[in-house]
Every structure is written in structure tokens, then in C-alpha cells.
Amino acid sequence: MPPSEAFIRGIPKAELHLHIEGTLEPEMVFDLARKHALPLRYPSVAALREAYHFDNLQSFLDVYYAGAAVLRDASDFHALTSAYLQRAHADGVVHTEIFFDPQTHTARGVPMEAVIRGIHGALTEGQARLGVTHRLIMCFLRHLSAADAMATLEEALPYKELIAAVGLDSAESGNPPSKFSAVFARARQAGLLTVAHAGEEGPPQYITEALDLLQVRRVDHGVRCEEDDNLVARLARERVPLTVCPLSNVKLRVFARLEDHNLKRLLDRGLCVTVNSDDPAYFGGYVAQNYLEVSRALGLSQVDVTQLACNSIEASLLPDSKKQEWQAKIRAFAARAEA
Ligand code: HPA
Ligand code: ZN
User: Fold this and answer.
1) In sequence order, which residues have a C-beta less than 8 Å from that of residue 201 and are 6 or more positions away?
2) Which end of the chain is more exposed for a tag (fewer CB within 10 A), N or C?
3) Edge-to-edge strands of the sheet including 13-19?
4) Are 187 and 166 in contact (CB under 8 A)?
5) Residue 325 and residue 306: Cα distance in Å, rounded?
6) Per-residue pLDDT averaged across 62-71, rounded?
């Protein structure tokens, strides 16, 4: 049975690949620019939105880092995170694991504490108000040096109780996971878990490096694993989750069309594939829109969507008891829809 929009929105799900800076909507860019008296290159919200056409990852990152420059104090990060949680809740998200990029902000003189406390305060409030649980994942910008990442890690360690894991994002090609082996070793030693973007634009070998050198729990994107059969077999055997972002992949031209996406093939090969929104303000949709559009483009069934939702919980950093609770709720939701 093809899943209805109500089914897709309503099924409980976790979101695991979401850059909080990527939820900055053009309206908020203008509000914050006004608040801080910052000049903008675009004359209007519509003109800014119109600029969201990208040829590849780098052309997106240039716009994304420019947009993030309006985030200046803890209340900005709080407002950004609260707005995202409201949208995620409306999309059936019951648990979210959020990336943030401290180097984008500390390089502009924003204190680490303002970034972390702003985001974390909104997450705590959101949990009380909406019941959405959360984890925070601090990403290192891989186009910067390993020494810069190490200094950022040390600066964040006083707040490590608020952070569950570290990750790796930004320009992938030419910046392999191996560049950050020592930084991730230090993070693990401090008790943090690890994830990494790999196999979005970079080769399958970067996925293997992320697993073997950074000891990641899951791989962000990972779609280029399909070029290496042995790697696909390993990911299936070890149930290494992939946090796939279908609309992002089309916007950044990893796949020409959504119809060409390999999500269904990877799901059918037994991989723990999940659906996520990446940078929804830039890529044309929050998580339910990603589920909806990829379901239509690839002809996913209600059973497939239920599997994706169960995978999102399995791939999360929640304790096993919570995972079992949510998976039972997901199955009960799907059974009610069948009846
Ligand atoms: N890839 C790499 N870096 C990023 C992304 C992405 O999709 N989104 C935000 N930073
Ligand atoms: Zn990403």
C-alpha cells in the first residue's frame, strides 16, 4: 500500500542528521540581521531564497556559512533551535540528534558557551513542552586543520555533559577521516561517541576510514558505499546505520533526480538506512517532506516507511529500553493504519 501523507507525518520517528545552522530560514536571517544591525547582500527574503541553487557541496557551504553569520548570541541559538523543534514535532519526530558547527561561530568571536547553552537550553525546554528527546553532536569542519579541531574539542570539553558525540562535516573531497584520527581518539577518551559524514561526495574508502580509524557508530550520508560491494556487505552485516538525506542529495547533485536515489536498493540489501533532512531551510523540506518525496519517487510501501522509522530509532543514541518502547509504538501505529 502506498503510504498516505498522514501516515508519513504521523509515524513516530527520530531525526539523526540535522545541522541546526541548516534550519535557519531566510525570515530569521533578516530578523537577526536587523537585531544586530548587520548588512545583508540580498534585498529581500524572496531574493535570498531565490539564491538557493547549488552545483555541489561547496557551492552550498559558501551560502550556508554566510547565512550563519547572523547568529551572534545565546538567544539567537535558542530561537533557532526552538523553531526547528516546533517543525520537527509537527513532522512526527519524537527524538532528534542535532549537529552544530562551533568553529563557524567561535571564528567570529561568538563564545562556545553561548552556542552550546543557547541550543541546549532550547532542547531542554522543547523536551518539557513537546516531549521531543534529544542528543547534541558537535561537528568539526573538515576543511580546517586537525589542530583547529583539537583546540575546539578542548574548548568544548568543559561542556561535555551536554554533548553526546562528535562528528565531521563540511567539504569532504580531499579531507579524509584519517586527517582527524587523533582528534576523534581524544574525543572517545573523554567519553564522547563518534559519527562522521562520509561517502556523500567522497569515495567509499572514506567510509571505511570513518569506521576503522574514527570508530564511528553510524555514517552520515554514506550513499557512495554502493560503489564497493564488500563495503555494502560489511555495512549490512554490522548494521552500521546510514543517515541518508534524499532532498539534500538532489539539491547538491549527488543524484540527478530523486528517482535515481539508491535508498531503496540499500534498504533491500539489508542496510540500516534512515531518512533525514540535513539542512532543511536550504534543501526544500523538513524530515516528513523527505519521507514523502522519496516514498513517491521510489514507490516505497507502508512497510518500507515503517522499516525506515524503526531504523531511525535503532540508529539513535537512545538506550535500548527506549528503543524497544518506540519501536513497539511504531509497529502499533502501522498496524492501526492497516486496519
Ligand atoms: N555535508 C557536509 N557538510 C555539511 C552538510 C553536508 O551535507 N550540511 C551542512 N554541513
Ligand atoms: Zn550533513
Assistant:
1) 56, 57, 172, 173, 224, 252, 254
2) C
3) 13-19, 93-100, 133-141, 165-169, 193-194
4) yes
5) 15
6) 95
For residue 222, what are the contacts with CB-CB under 8 A and spacing of at least 6? 198, 199, 200, 207, 235, 242, 243, 244
**All domains of the chain, ordered by start, with CATH?**
5-338 (3.20.20.140)
Cell representation of residue 32: 537577526
The number of C-alpha atoms within 13 Å of 12 and in the hemisphere containing its C-beta is 20
The tens digit of pLDDT for each residue in 89-143 reads 999 999 999 999 999 999 999 999 999 999 999 999 999 999 999 999 999 999 9
The whole-model pTM stands at 0.98
Instruction: Give the distance, in angstroms, between the CA of residue 89 and the centroid of all CA atoms in the same chain.
Output: 16
Distance 332 CA to ligand 2 centre (A): 31
Q: Tell me the best of 20, 65, 170 to mutate to test the pocket of ligand 1, counting ligand atoms within 8 Å of each CB and taking the most.
A: 170
CA distance 33 to 45: 12
Q: Ligand 1 within 6 A of 278 CB? A: yes
- In the DSSP assignment, the letter for residue 137 is E
Of the candidates 307, 300, 322, the one whose C-alpha atom is nearest the C-alpha of residue 272 is 307
Asked if 154 is an active-site residue, the reply is no
As residues whose CB is below 5 A from the ion ligand 2, the structure lists 278
